[in-house]
Amino acid sequence: MAHARTALSVNLNKVALVRNTRHLGIPSVTRAATLCLEAGAAGITVHPRPDERHIRAHDVHDLAALLKAWPGREFNIEGNPFHNLMDFVRALRPHQATFVPDAEGQFTSDHGWRFPDDAGRLRPLIDECRALGVRVSLFMDAEADQMAAARAVGADRIELYTEPYAAAHATPARAGQLRRFAQAAQAALDAGLGVNAGHDLNRDNLTDFLRAVPGVSEVSIGHALIADALELGYAETIRAYNRCIADAFA
Ligand SMILES: CC(=O)[C@@H](O)[C@H](O)COP(=O)(O)O
Ligand SMILES: NCC(=O)COP(=O)(O)O
């Protein structure tokens, strides 16, 4: 079956990280969002961590307001629903909430939810999001045998945690990782889930990933993309990432 082209959601955490080192409001997170959307980003992602080391609560509110002027573009808020994520979801009703099982103060995301262990406590929060009209994506390791359980708990999508693939991309382990991610994505699709992907995706590894892994609806990319934007500017960077996606579907 032919799949729709993958949407690029730009994660702006690292713009906020730089901004927070002074009290001057630069670089501006909302200005970055506008420039990325103008250049063709399909959406904006943020992961407001409880310690506010980068994205702060006001950024999430400012971006939700900004996205209202961009119909068809999506706002994705990531976080742990047992910490601060649900407050944002209830107040702002983003297009998508991505549940991530990070500890408070965690260095960066490094694993997904586990089933059956997490099912009971996730189900009511997923139900609440869906009642609010918010799509739920669960951050998951690339394990095919976990996908039916992610669907059974009520999720709309899963986000494949791609760091193990990214770390293997320049090594002989790449082919094995791609097989693992393709099997996990196919299992998710077979279970009726949409498939997102993210973490350490970049201009070098993105096209190979999308060629090998079926049916990826959205990639959220932050760290490498913002690093590229420091050199190329936001507009050229978004065009470059969209070319990587287009090449995978050519
Ligand atoms: C969920 C995920 O894989 C990453 O988006 C993560 O949110 C990045 O967070 P940091 O930018 O804090 O490393
Ligand atoms: N969900 C992944 C994301 O938003 C960005 O991850 P990264 O590109 O900053 O590693």
From TrEMBL:
Site (Transition state stabilizer): 159
Reaction equation(s) it catalyzes: 3-amino-2-oxopropyl phosphate + 1-deoxy-D-xylulose 5-phosphate = pyridoxine 5'-phosphate + phosphate + 2 H2O + H(+)
Family statement drawn from the similarity comment of this UniProt entry: Belongs to the PNP synthase family.
Protein name as annotated: Pyridoxine 5'-phosphate synthase
Active site residues per record: 47, 78, 199
Source organism per UniProt: Hydrogenophaga crocea
Cellular compartments annotated: Cytoplasm
Any one GO cellular component localisation term in the record: cytosol
Pfam short name (any one): PdxJ
InterPro entries: Aldolase_TIM, PyrdxlP_synth_PdxJ, Pyridoxine-5'_phos_synth
E.C. number(s) listed in UniProt: 2.6.99.2
Subunit structure: Homooctamer; tetramer of dimers.
Pathway info: Cofactor biosynthesis; pyridoxine 5'-phosphate biosynthesis; pyridoxine 5'-phosphate from D-erythrose 4-phosphate: step 5/5
Binding site for 1-deoxy-D-xylulose 5-phosphate: 49, 54, 108
Residue numbers binding 3-amino-2-oxopropyl phosphate: 11, 22, 200, 222-223
Highest classification ranks of the organism: Bacteria, Pseudomonadati, Pseudomonadota, Betaproteobacteria, Burkholderiales
Function: Catalyzes the complicated ring closure reaction between the two acyclic compounds 1-deoxy-D-xylulose-5-phosphate (DXP) and 3-amino-2-oxopropyl phosphate (1-amino-acetone-3-phosphate or AAP) to form pyridoxine 5'-phosphate (PNP) and inorganic phosphate.
An annotated GO BP: pyridoxine biosynthetic process
Keywords in alphabetical order: Cytoplasm, Pyridoxine biosynthesis, Transferase
Enzyme class: transferase
Entry's Gene Ontology molecular function annotations: pyridoxine 5'-phosphate synthase activity
Cited PANTHER family: PYRIDOXINE 5'-PHOSPHATE SYNTHASE
